[in-house]
Amino acid sequence: MENLSYKAYIVEETGKKEFKGQVRQTPLENLPQGDLLIRVHYSSLNYKDALSATGNPGVTRKFPHTPGIDAAGVVEESRDPRFPKGEAVIVTSYDLGMNTWGGFGQYIRVPADWAVKLPQGLTMKESMIFGTAGFTAGMSVHKLIRTVGPDQGDILVTGATGGVGSLSVGILSHLGYKVTALSGKTDTTLLDSLGARAVISRESLLENSKPPILKASWAGAIDTVGGEILATAIKATGQDGVVTCCGNVASPDLPINVFPFILRGVSLLGIDSQHCPMNLRQTVWERLASDWKFPMLEKIYDEIDLNDLDNKIGLILNGKLTGRTLVNLR
């Protein structure tokens, strides 16, 4: 396959802090060394991909570059007996789509230790409707439900119309939890369809949020945005509640005191989907393929091809996307 070229969305630096993405053919030899050559069938658009595509140095420093922090496809060449040719695999996290060319191309080449075999019960398309966002939501649910049961009270999910948030709402509602969804958008159709019991605005959450501890309103929370919203969620979580944290789009700072932790025993659990151990990674994907796979999954995504990426990247950066965006590379 040495002389093969393939189609990819390639971002180039065109000037100082100026970046432009375009779809073009590129030689297979441009891919990095790795154990597995994978023909990508599907990827998905995540906020980190939009940052990479616009030259955010905290995500990508080397250009030209192909974003795409997740991919599902079939092994074409393998140096590892665990993954024979023809094996369907999922690759998320690690360095994919950051400084290693990612899933917005028809091929990727990666270390075998980055790959997970596609579990039974999940198609490649479904795996990327979940994608990195679904995997992150799954990790959050995994940590929360070990302590908080469905009968202990409502669960707050922040950033609920985004990828991680909407999938968290869907999974938790499917498992019988009563979910309160926090959203900055006025249209609640998506959240209602996913089973949210209530939808509240950011303004209502933050109203009268200054006291060091607030009335206990939730048994736990999945936070995707950070900052003052995360702090308020912690202060309003009840006795022995659990709050998970996986994002910082609002702010990386946490303006809070110790009272929720020492007076109510609230636990704040960080979610690192990029470097989590392989045994946990496999466990979460198995659950997403089985009892966490909720009926509305097939109705919460918009399917695009590489030519549509520029428009969608602009929308996600401006907070105007809801649900999931599936990228079809077949």
Per-chain topology:
Layout (H helix, E strand, L loop, with lengths): L4 E11 L2 E10 L8 E9 L2 H7 L16 E9 L9 E5 L14 E4 L4 E3 L6 H22 L9 E3 L5 H12 L4 E4 L6 H5 L4 E3 L1 H5 L11 E6 L3 H9 L1 E9 L13 H5 L3 E4 L7 H11 L12 E4 L4 H9 L6 E5 L2
Helix pairs in contact: 1-9, 2-3, 2-8
Provide an overview of this structure.
The protein contains nine helices and 15 strands. Strands 3, 4, 5, 6, 7, 14 and 15 form a seven-stranded mixed beta sheet that branches. The protein has a six-stranded parallel beta sheet with strand order 10-9-8-11-12-13, with helices on both faces. Strands 1-2 form a two-stranded antiparallel ribbon. The mean pLDDT is 95. The protein folds into two domains: 5-118 and 300-328, Quinone Oxidoreductase, Chain A, domain 1 (Alpha-Beta Complex); 133-270, Rossmann fold (3-Layer(aba) Sandwich). Helix 1 crosses helix 9, helix 2 (124-145) packs across helix 3 (163-174) and helix 2 (124-145) packs across helix 8. The chain is of the alpha/beta class.
The gist of it:
The protein is α/β, with parallel strands linked by helices and 330 residues long. Helix content is 26%, strand content 27%. The chain is built from nine helices and 15 strands.
